[in-house]
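tool_log.txt
---
The assistant was asked to compare two proteins side by side. It first ran the structure predictor on the initial sequence, then on the second. Raw inputs and outputs are pasted verbatim so the downstream comparison step can read them without reformatting.
(1)
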Amino acid sequence: MHSSDGSHAIAWQEGFGRLGSAFLTHLQPTPLPNAQWVARTPEVASLAGLPDGFLHTDAALQAFTGNTVLPGSQPYASVYSGHQFGVWAGQLGDGRAIHLGETAAGWELQLKGAGRTPYSRGGDGRAVLRSSIREFLCSEAMHALGIPTTRALCLTASDAPVYREEAETAAVVTRTAPSFVRFGHFEHFAARDMQHELRQLADYVIDRYYPACRNGWQSASANTDNAYAALLYEVGQRTAQMVAHWQAVGFCHGVMNTDNMSILGLTIDYGPFQFLDAFDPSHICNHSDHQGRYAFNKQPQIAYWNLFCLGQALLPLIEDEDITVQALEAYRPTFSYAFRRLMCHKLGLPSATDSHEAAATAVIGQLLEILATNRVDHTIFWRRLSLSAQDHDYERARELFLDTAAFDRWLLTYQELSAQSGQAPDANLMRNTNPAFVLRNHVGELAIRAAQAGDFSMVQSLHQVLSQPFADHPAHSAWADFPPDWASSIAISCSS
């Protein structure tokens, strides 16, 4: 599609922006000097319905750096509230995110780092190159792993200074999703007893993203025609699936505040995240998390806690505490089932719904215990186990353990379970479930250092490799190897 002057034009449609001034503030991005491309994702451009070739134009570079406003776009920042580290934080909002609007293909475009908004709370509204590279790469890595996530359209850089712990340079990530509505949007209006706006928001989300909720919610324990209870239930189901994926792949989000929880069950707001190196269930990846609230093994329970906050916010609409609790409680069995199913796939076993469910659960639990005791590298172990199943030789997995006798005992139970199911572990399933490549902190750090020196080639190569994480990529095998000693000194905080 092209406009009359021959330039590319994007087709927009009404989305969240139509809700009005109680929900958002219209504003303009703040320009940055000397914009340059760092990386782009043509697949996402196509998904979002952008015109062919637009992502390779100077017009796109300027628009996605915040230097110009695309024709038809009406930029805005939205207001929300939330609980941060378990404490009510009051009003928050898009402090450094500016929405460009929703494309006709149904994807919202959002600039992260394009300047101050009314919700910046004293901040500069900017993002630094370091954290922007991490978000860009991880968004796309998570998608390629099959994990629900926002997507990253492109990343641009500027030499404008941004001050965090030290002077850094600015960058803007253009991220996209069907919606960026968060649990905190609902908390905001509930806390202010703005029930008209609360209902308006809930109706918008239901009609736009969960239309089946208008038929109510039926389960073994509940039968109601309440659309708002159905919404809570569906959000809980999606959240359970998302967190099960996190736990299976070893992903630590790092800052699961209610304002960082997507109403669509998407992984959102990549800040102090980390993929586990050594398997440590109590690992804390966020150096700002002094109490360990968001430790890896606490993520499933924190997600439930956040859903409870959403349930409280929706209660004035649901008007029935019992139904609200039943909708919330459905999260737990869904998470357990989803996690067990994913772990069985990692082991190349039939789904855990069969008659061997208890035995499969025991095998998984035993394995996680010896992985933690031996501090085995999470990604490398699962990849080697996949190759071991393929070769019928488990030595390459066994040698990762200091306590080889413990591994041998586990291997015996694993093989017995396989025999009971009547089939060998499915090596192809394992190879397509257990990635060779994840975005390890130290690899990301190397790409960041090169980019800060003006070389974006490693960012672009990593982008390509992480988009095919189950392939071997022999030219980049070092990125799938054990982390170096210095990797443990990388500190990731909320300011990252």
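(2)
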Amino acid sequence: MGMSVTISAATVQDAEQIFRLQYLCFQSEAALYGNYRIDPLVQTLDSVRAEVTADCVFVARLGEEVVGSVRGSVTEDGSAAIGKLCVHPRLQGHGIGARLLRAAEAALTEQRGAKRFRLEAGHRSEGNLRLYRKVGYEAVGTSKGADGVPMVVLEKAAGTYAATA
């Protein structure tokens, strides 16, 4: 019998594994845009540690290995920004990303009072956009990342869960 993937709140001890996983996972995004200076690839380990301490961060584990992560934080107006969702390439397509999103959304709503969720995905990132639409997000606009990548801005109301996820 194989191990199952579990979702839990991240601890500061997970920061190094999150950091390494993020670097691995966002290589394909960087290649898609020809830009290896995107934020997930230039973020420092200390910055990841700080996010794990201050933000709502969840990890997916296969045994002791961190195979997925997501981060979220709530602004003063009750909007929750969700970002840096990543799942190890060998485990993508098995619903782990949707499970991570659901865990973050639930915690951000129940523990931090989020009323609405917002996230961004690169305009060419069809797999990511497909996942976000599948779990109830709708495109509400566009923006440009600090790295110059055109982004699609997606939102959904807190408590909105897609039945197909």
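---
observation on (2): The longest strand covers residues 65-74. The CA atoms of residues 90 and 117 lie 28 Å apart.
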